[in-house]
Amino acid sequence: MKVIFYSTKVFEIEPIRNANKNGYKLSLFSDPLNMSTVELARGHDAVCVFTNDDVSGEVLKKLSLMGIKNLATRAVGYDNIDVEAAKQLKIAVANVPDYSPNAVAEHAIMMMLSLIKKNKTTEAQIQKQNFSIDNIIGSNVQGKTIGLIGTGKIGSTMAKLLNGFDVKLLAYDLKINTELKRLYNVTYLDLESLCKQSDIITIHLPLNAKTKYLIDDHLLSKMKYKVIIINTARGSIVNTSDLIKHLKSKQIGGYGMDVYEFERGVFFFNHENNPIKDKLLLELISLKNVLVTPHQAFATDEAIYNIANTTFHNLYCWENNIHSENEINSNTNEIKTHLAVL
Ligand code: NAI
């Protein structure tokens, strides 16, 4: 089997090579998949992409004309893939749904603690040898009300980890997880009630037509004064312009963002010698109550190992005509397809 990997990061090369137990012929490219790079896929049997690759209907059509039948994403989220177009073109798509919910949940908790303890200010002060603590009084997490938006694999791991902080947990999801109610006393509410009652809100939803701009001016204005919001899910779930307005008015006390609405082409790249011009991102970076990480929540040794192994499992299944449980757009997985095209 000949497989082309797009958006290959340096840290992935060794895990990918180690996971290639069947000796597939690999082409590892650092460039993302898009209309300019799609031609590189010619002659391969399968294509492997990452979160910010452009897997639109237009690109998929080109891949289909080259005879590509299999597309594997090395990610949980597949909002960058036109799953419906792939289905029409008979291109099977598989993701890596469960590589390490802990990697992302632990990152979200790191952001939460960092914001609550004003670490960005501390770090800036320390750089100037200012060791006073007048400006960096935080608060306890204990006793706070935390709202989980999304209680799938990552959201429910958050519930498990946060339970140890002795907090009140609220949740909003299409599906109620009765285990979370039983184990951690999680209370499910409608989204607006969760927003009104939470001191800290953490987002763990997929991005689709129903969740795009779910957190907008309306909901932001309903939130508690000085609420902290953490977004490790997808940037476009939050309306960035609305968010900045509410950060400026201090309605939002802190924002931890591992993902950003316009991150494609920026996150994952070194812009030291090619400074970014995105005014919204520059403004967010400049705010002392905004913590930015470049889509790194997933990036742990354990997760990268699991991603590589599951990706090769998906490829192996296709090579051997076995149904992979990770296929997004097969008929046996209608729910996933439905969520992706909502
Ligand atoms: P999951 O599929 O296990 O859980 C998603 C949950 O969202 C489900 O419980 C589902 O019922 C709920 N949901 C879907 N649409 C909804 C809607 N319209 N309203 C309310 N609830 C809805 O996914 P998982 O593994 O928890 O991941 C969540 C997201 O986190 C991924 O889709 C991905 O975008 C993001 N992610 C980010 C990473 C990072 O490095 N920053 C790494 C991995 C995932």
Task: Write structural notes for this entry.
This protein has 342 residues and is α/β, with parallel strands linked by helices. It has 2 domains: 2-99 and 301-335, Rossmann fold; 101-292, 3-Layer(aba) Sandwich (Rossmann fold), CATH 3.40.50.720. Helices cover 37% and strands 14% of the residues. Strands 8-7-6-9-10-11-12 form a 7-stranded parallel sheet, sandwiched between helices. Helix 1 crosses helix 12 and helix 4 crosses helix 6. It is globular and about 60 Å long. The chain starts with a strand and ends with a helix. The protein binds 1,4-dihydronicotinamide adenine dinucleotide. 1,4-dihydronicotinamide adenine dinucleotide binds at residues 76-77, 101, 104, 150-155, 173-175, 204-207, 210-211, 232-234, 258-259, 295, 297-298, 339.
Layout: helices, strands, pairs:
Elements: E1 2-5, H1 10-19, E2 25-28, E3 46-49, H2 57-65, E4 70-73, H3 83-88, E5 92-94, H4 101-116, H5 119-127, E6 145-149, H6 153-163, E7 168-172, H7 178-184, E8 187-188, H8 191-197, E9 200-203, H9 217-222, E10 227-231, H10 240-248, E11 252-257, H11 279-286, E12 290-292, H12 301-319, H13 334-341
Parallel strand pairs: 1-2, 1-3, 3-4, 4-5, 6-7, 6-9, 7-8, 9-10, 10-11, 11-12
Helix pairs in contact: 1-12, 4-6
